[in-house]
Every structure is written in C-alpha cells, then in structure tokens.
Amino acid sequence: MSGATVGEPEGGDGEEVLARVALARVIEPGDEHGGRWLREHGAPGLMRLLTGPDPEPEELSGVGSQRLAGWRARAALADPGRELSEAAAAGCRFICPGSPQWPTQLDDLGDARPVGLWVRGRPDLRTWALRSVALVGARACTPYGAHMAHTLAAGLAERGWVVVSGAAYGVDAAAHRGALGSGGATAAVLACGVDVAYPRGHAGLLGAIAGQGLVLGELPVGSHPTPSRFVLRNRVIAALTRGTVVVEAAYRSGSLVTARWARQLGRFTMGVPGPATSALSAGVHELLRGEAVLVTDAAEVVELVGGMGELAPARRGPVLARDLLHPDTARVLEALPAGRPVQPAEVALAAGTGTDEVIGRLYELHSLGFVERLGDGWRLTPLTREGGTQTGGARRGGR
C-alpha cells in the first residue's frame, strides 16, 4: 500500500486532510451545496465557518436555517483524530483530493464529488481505477443474470481489468465472485462505512474483497446505509470506472441510476440483453434503445473501454464443409436431387455445364464424402441429405 499509513494524513497537508475527515461526517454524500461551500472556502475554512460564530448569510447560502443548524451541530461533534484512530483499528485509510491515491476522474462529478473516501485493502485505488469497469444489475436477478455477471467479470479479470460493483445481492455479488474466482481484481463501493458488513449475508464476501481487492465508500466507519445513500453511491461507481455494464434491470432498478450517471459523465454505457418477456431485462432493453451499446461477453466490453487494437473477435456462424467448395463444384452438388440416383448427363443439364465437367466434379465430391456412386448413377450420401451440408437439390425434393 503506497502513501501514508492510516491515522496519518496522506499527501502532506495535514490540516486539509483532517478538515475533510471531519466534513465526511458532516456533509451527506453528493450534497452539492456542501460541495460548493467546500470549493469556495476550502476544507479548513468551511470547518471554521461551521464551528465558529453564526456565518453571514452570503457565506453559506443556498440552504434553510434548520438544515444549516443541523450541519453546525454535526460539525461541533466532529473529532477527526478519533475518526482516524477508529479507521486504523478497522484496517482502513482515508484518501481525498490531493492524495497520491485519489482517482482524479472523480473530479468530473463537480460539486457532487466525494469529500474523501475511506478504503480497506492494500492496492492503490488511483492505479486500479484507470483500468476498471462497473458491473451492476438487479438484486433479485435470474439465474441467467447471475451467470452473465459471473462470466463477464471473470473474463474482464482475466484480461487485466478491475471489476467494480456495489456488493449487493444478485448481479453485484455474482460479479465480485466471478472476478475473485478467476484470481482477478475487484472493488466494492459501499453506501455505508467500509467496516460495516451490509448486507450481513455478505460479510464473508466483503472480507474476501478486502483481502484480494478494495472496499471503499464515502461514509466514516460505523455508518449505516439509507435508501438515499444507495442512490448517491452509484455516482461514485459510474465516475470511478471507464464504463458501466447493466446486466439485468427492471424499469425502476437502481442500477439504471448508475448507467445514467455514466452517460452524463461521458463514460461508456453498456447493457446485456435478456428475454423480451422478462421484466428484469426491461430496463436494460430501454437503455439499449437509447445510447447504450449491446454487449454479450468480456471481449465486447473491452473493445469499447480498452485501448486501440483491443478488438473483439469477428462473429460468424459455423463453417460447413460445403461452404469451402469451389463454386462450380457447389453448383454440381446443388443439381443432385435428394431421393434418387441420376446420370451425369442429367446433372449436367440441371447444372448448366458439360458432362465431362460434371464427372470430374462428382469424383471430387465423392472424395469429400458428399456423394456416392451407384452403378452408372450418382446420389447424395445420407449425411449430405440429412446434415448441415444439405443442398439446394435436396431442398427442392422436399417441397
């Protein structure tokens, strides 16, 4: 782990970091009024305004008196030294703008940018975020959704990409497990303190992510999630990564919020199609009708978010043996009826060529297993009549 140790301000400006640690307890995630004040006054200056005498109205404008009083009450109770000590005990560290590990793409959020991030895990967040993709989707996903999330995550991890998700049940969990199972990198962005196991059933999963990857969030240790914090957490997932893939989502799914943030921030937005009759794919299909790109595997995701030349393989159906025949040979094969042997002269008439040419082509087809000789006549082999090399003549015989 690079940078300062937990409990010691990273980046050298101790006053700035301590003020941001305090403000992380005061300002709710994504609050643009607090973000604007932070930009206008700086972190130490804002803390002085919140803890000193009543500020002038123009100094902290845009909110009502009761809301401002609530923030001032929180600020009066803030104890950044204690916060850092508790974080150290939980194995966490604090990073913020100006820290070596701060992912600068989060600055695209403007005044909604996090005050700072609490992080569990050894890797460098800034480096990991440079090559990361978000995989999100329904909590109550189908087996198909879980399979696609797991497979996509494993494929991305095998290609050296970090899989970012929210550690929820369903698609999120399948994505994290897919990356972990392939020995790859994954990061979980939480809507609570990074020391809080939420959901409780994912305590083991979160421990595995922290051991092999990263667990991060905006809220101080011990903080519990609320519905609004889940929604606002999604903007961090979208801003942190190169693109967002929605695997399954109903019309009101929270994962669509992540996709909208990704599109707004200029990131790639992708969707995995599902059955047209599935309500859990309806939200994804609506994305795909707009600006999202359809993807079905990791190679297609990397083709969008990766560097020049990282292209998905060309897609085509299976190559049948008859596809490789010379056009003149294929024309003779198509002239053979399905149900009976024929003379070369009859084949020549149907193929529009000479008898000598037909005889040569028939022997070529015989060597390849398409036809067999029966006395003076020729007929299609059973495999040719019944299998993938079915000819035009056989189709004509079936009408």
Describe this structure in words.
The protein is an alpha/beta fold and 399 residues long. Among the domains are: 185 residues, Rossmann fold, CATH 3.40.50; 78 residues, Arc Repressor Mutant, subunit A (Orthogonal Bundle). 46% of the residues lie in helices and 11% in strands. The protein has 17 helices and 11 strands. A 9-stranded mixed sheet has the order 1-2-6-5-4-3-7-8-9, sandwiched between helices. The termini are far apart. The relative contact order is 0.09.
Q: Which class do the helix and strand fractions yield?
A: alpha/beta
CATH topology category name of the domain at 121-305: Rossmann fold
**What is the end-to-end distance?**
72 Å
What's the overall average pLDDT, rounded? 89
User: How are helices and strands ordered from N to C?
Assistant: HHHHEEHEHEHEHEHEHEHEHHHHEEHH
Number of helices: 17
Q: How would you write the strand order of the largest sheet?
A: 1-2-6-5-4-3-7-8-9
Kindly state the number of beta strands: 11
Instruction: Detail the poorly predicted runs.
Output: 1-12, 388-399
- Summarize the amount of helix as a percent range: 40-55%
Radius of gyration in whole Å, from Cα? Answer: 31 Å
Q: Tell me, briefly, the overall form.
A: elongated
Assess the beta-strand content as a share of residues.
5-15%
Set down the secondary structure blueprint.
Elements: H1 14-26, H2 32-51, H3 65-77, H4 80-89, E1 92-95, E2 117-120, H5 125-129, E3 132-136, H6 143-158, E4 162-165, H7 171-181, E5 186-190, H8 203-212, E6 214-217, H9 227-240, E7 243-246, H10 255-264, E8 268-271, H11 279-289, E9 293-294, H12 298-305, H13 327-335, H14 344-351, H15 355-367, E10 371-374, E11 377-380, H16 382-386, H17 392-398
Parallel strand pairs: 3-4, 3-7, 4-5, 5-6, 7-8, 8-9
Antiparallel strand pairs: 1-2, 2-6, 10-11
Helix pairs in contact: 1-2, 1-3, 1-4, 6-7, 6-12, 7-8, 9-10, 13-14, 13-15, 14-15
